[in-house]
Design brief:
The chain is mainly β. Helices cover about 10% and strands about 30% of the residues. It is globular, with a radius of gyration of 27 Å. This is Calcineurin-like phosphoesterase domain-containing protein.
C-alpha cells in the first residue's frame, strides 16, 4: 500500500479566492488522512484555498492506497471560488511505499479525553492546565460539559477556548478549525439553559473538519482527524432519535462504523456501558454491540472516576473525573483492569496508522501517569500461497492452489505442491487432505459468501480466493469425521503464518468448528479476538492450539497461527473438527 500527499501554495495572502481541488481515482482502497483545515467533500476529494496556504500548510493526503492494476491518479483542478485562470500553485508531492507493514503516517495524532468537568472549579482548572501542556491535536468529552446555572462559556470556554472553532465567547479568539468534540450528558439537558445552550455554543463537527456529515444534527455526529474516526453519540433519554441498540441513532452508528476506513474508530458517550462506581454503575441500555459493529474503544463518563474495562478484547473507558466531585468504588466489574478515584484527571491518547496508546493521567504533582494500554495492529504479511478447498469453475483462479477433499467428486487433487500466488511457481511445501466431503451443489453465493469489507478475513483473502462452496465433515469420533490438512516439506529454519477461514451463513443452525494445529515446535495463536454463537471465546490465548470458529461468520473472524516452526521433520497438521452444540455436521469453506 502507498501514502500519497500533496500541497499547493500561492504565497500571496492577497489571493484568498483561489482554491485547489485534489481528487484520487483508480485506486482499489484508500483512507483520506488530510490535515485539519481542508474541506473533505468525499473520501476521494479535498480542497483548500491555495492563495495563502503558506501560512497554514494544509496537506491533501491519502493512506493505505492499493491499486490492483498498479495505477492510480491524483488530479489537481481549481475550485469554483477561483476568480481567474490562475488556479493552483507550487505543488509539492511525495509518495511513501509501504514495505512489510502499514505506513505510520508520520508523528502520532494525539487527543485528550475529559468528562464531567464543566463546573468552573479549581479542580477543572488543574485538569485543563495539565491538558493544555500536552499540546494535543484535539479534545473529546464524555458529557456533562456544563453544570449549574453558570454560563456555559465560563464552564467550558474559560478553560478550552483554544480548541473551540467558531468560538463566540469571551476567552480569547478560539480555534481557526474546531478541534473540540463534545458529547451530551444529562446535566447538559437539566442544568442552566439546557441543551439549547450546548447546541448554540458549539458548531459540530465544525467547518473544515473531515466528517461523513450524515447524521444531520449536532446531538450525535462524527469527525475524522488523521487515523482516528470519532463518533459522538447521545445516550440521554431526551434524544429524539432514540438510545436503544435498534434506534435510528444506533442504526446510524452501525452504518458509519461499517463504512469507515479509518484505522481507529472511537465512540464517545456519557452513560457508561460498564462501570464499577458506587454512584451510577453500568448502563445496560447502552451495552450496544460496539465491537461487532467495528468500534475500537468506547469512552464514557457519568461516573466521576477513571476505569479501564476489557470485554472480550473491546476496551471500555470511564473518564468522568475531570472536574466534578469524585465518586466511590462499588462492585468491581470482573473485567475491570484499572479503577482510579484518588484525584482528578484526564486521558491522553496517541494514535498512528498502526498503533493507538491510551494513557490516564491524574493532576497529582502536575501530572502523574496512572494507567496505560495499547493496541498494535499486526504488521501486514504478504502470504505466499492461497488454497481453495472447494474451488469450482467460474470462481477466482489466478495462481490459487486447488487441493480438496478426496470425497465428493471435486475432480481436484487431494495432494500437491502449494503454488506461489505472485509468481505461479511451485513451492517446496506439499498440502495433503484427508477426510471431509465436498458438496458440489453448494457453490452459489448463499453458501459461504465472501467476507465483508473491513474484516480480517477480507483483508487476507479478498481477490485471492472465492469463499463460495462447502466442505463438510461428520460429527463422529475423531479422527474419522475430521477434515485433516497435512503440510510437509516445511523448512525448519523458517517461521510460517497460517490462516483459515470458513463461513456457514445460516443462523438457523448453531454449529461451531474447532481448528487445531499439531506437530509444531512453536507457534503463536493470533486468531480473531471474539466470541462464538454461544458467547464463548474463540481461543484462550497465544498458546492455545485450537480456535473455535462460529457456524455463522459474518464478522470475518479467522483462525491464525503465526511464527509456526515445523521442527526437523518439516511437517505440521491442521485439523478441523466438530465443536458445536447442535446438528450432525458443519459446512464451511476453508
Amino acid at each position: 500500500a502507498y501514502t500519497f500527499a500533496t500541497s499547493a501554495a500561492r504565497c500571496n495572502p492577497a489571493y484568498t479566492d483561489r482554491g485547489s481541488v485534489f481528487t484520487i481515482s483508480g485506486a482499489d482502497t484508500y483512507t483520506n488522512a488530510s490535515t485539519l483545515g481542508v474541506t473533505v467533500t468525499s473520501e476521494a476529494e479535498v480542497w483548500f484555498n491555495a492563495g495563502d496556504n503558506y501560512n497554514e500548510g494544509y496537506v491533501a493526503r491519502w493512506t493505505g492506497i492499493t491499486a490492483s492494476d498498479g495505477t492510480f491518479t491524483v488530479r489537481a483542478t481549481h475550485h469554483s471560488s477561483a476568480n481567474d485562470g490562475r488556479k493552483a500553485y507550487s505543488f509539492d508531492v511525495f509518495m511513501l511505499a509501504q514495505q512489510g507493514g502499514p505506513v505510520t503516517g508520520g508523528p502520532p495524532v494525539t487527543f485528550a479525553v475529559i468528562g464531567d468537568y464543566g463546573d468552573n472549579s479549581s479542580d477543572e482548572a488543574a485538569v485543563a492546565t495539565m491538558v493544555d501542556g500536552w499540546g494535543a491535536d484535539f479534545v473529546v468529552t464524555t458529557g456533562d460539559n456544563s453544570y449549574g446555572s453558570t454560563p456555559i462559556d465560563d464552564n467550558v470556554g474559560k478553560y478550552y477556548s483554544s480548541f473551540i472553532g467558531n468560538y463566540t465567547g469571551s476567552y480569547g479568539p478560539g480555534a481557526t478549525v474546531n478541534s473540540f468534540f463534545p458529547s451530551l450528558g444529562n446535566h447538559d439537558y437539566s442544568d442552566g439553559a439546557g441543551v439549547n445552550a450546548y447546541l448554540n455554543y458549539f458548531t459540530l463537527p465544525g467547518n473544515g473538519v473531515a466528517s461523513s456529515n450524515t447524521s444531520g444534527n449536532e446531538r450525535y455526529y462524527d469527525a475524522i482527524v488523521g487515523p482516528v474516526h470519532v463518533f459522538a453519540i447521545n445516550c440521554v433519554n431526551q434524544e429524539p432519535d432514540g438510545t436503544s441498540a435498534t434506534s435510528t441513532q444506533a442504526q446510524w452508528l452501525q452504518a458509519q462504523l461499517a463504512a469507515s476506513t479509518s484505522p481507529w474508530k472511537i465512540v464517545i458517550e456519557h452513560y457508561p456501558p460498564y462501570s464499577s462506581s458506587s454512584s451510577h454503575g453500568p448502563t445496560p441500555g447502552m451495552q450496544w454491540p460496539y465491537k461487532e459493529w467495528g468500534a475500537t474503544a468506547v469512552f464514557s463518563g457519568h461516573d466521576h472516576t477513571y476505569e479501564r474495562i476489557d470485554k472480550d478484547g473491546m476496551l471500555y473507558f470511564v473518564c468522568g473525573h475531570s472536574g466534578r466531585s469524585l465518586y466511590g468504588l462499588g462492585t468491581l466489574d470482573p473485567d475491570s483492569k484499572m479503577f482510579y478515584n484518588s484525584n482528578y484527571g484526564a486521558m491522553l491518547v496517541k494514535a498512528t496508522n498502526t498503533s493507538i496508546k491510551f494513557e490516564s493521567w491524574s493532576v497529582t504533582g502536575g501530572g502523574t501517569l496512572v494507567d496505560s494500554d495499547e493496541i498494535v495492529k499486526p504488521a501486514s504479511v504478504v502470504f505466499t500461497a492461497y488454497n481453495d478447498l472447494a474451488w469450482a469453475s467460474g470462481q477466482l483462479e489466478g495462481n490459487t492452489t486447488k487441493i480438496s477433499s478426496p470425497n465428493g467428486g471435486t475432480g481436484l487433487p487431494t495432494s500437491g505442491k502449494l503454488v506461489n500466488f505472485d509468481t505461479g511457481d511451485e513451492t517446496n511445501i506439499t498440502l495433503s487432505i484427508t477426510g471431509g466431503n465436498y458438496n458440489a451443489g453448494s457453490t452459489q453465493s448463499g453458501n459461504g459468501p465472501d467476507p465483508a469489507s473491513g474484516t480480517e478475513a477480507y483483508d487476507i483473502f479478498n481477490g485471492k480466493v472465492s469463499s463460495q462452496g462447502h466442505i463438510s465433515y461428520q460429527q463422529t469420533a475423531p479422527p474419522a469425521g475430521n477434515l485433516v490438512l497435512t503440510l510437509t516439506g516445511m523448512n525448519s529454519a523458517n517461521a510460517y503464518n497460517i490462516v483459515l477461514y470458513g463461513h456457514r451463513d445460516d443462523y438457523t443452525w448453531d454449529r461451531a468448528s474447532l481448528m487445531t494445529i499439531s506437530g509444531t515446535d512453536a507457534f503463536t495463536n493470533n486468531s480473531s479476538v471474539a466470541t462464538d454463537n454461544f458467547g464463548q471465546p474463540l481461543f484462550s490465548g497465544p498458546t492455545d492450539e485450537s480456535t473455535r470458529m462460529p457456524s455463522d461468520n459474518d464478522n470475518g473472524y479467522v483462525t491464525r497461527f503465526d511464527n509456526v516452526a515445523a521442527g526437523s521433520d518439516g511437517e505440521i497438521v491442521l485439523t478441523v473438527s466438530f465443536d458445536g452444540d447442535a446438528g450432525s455436521l458443519y459446512k464451511g469453506k476453508y
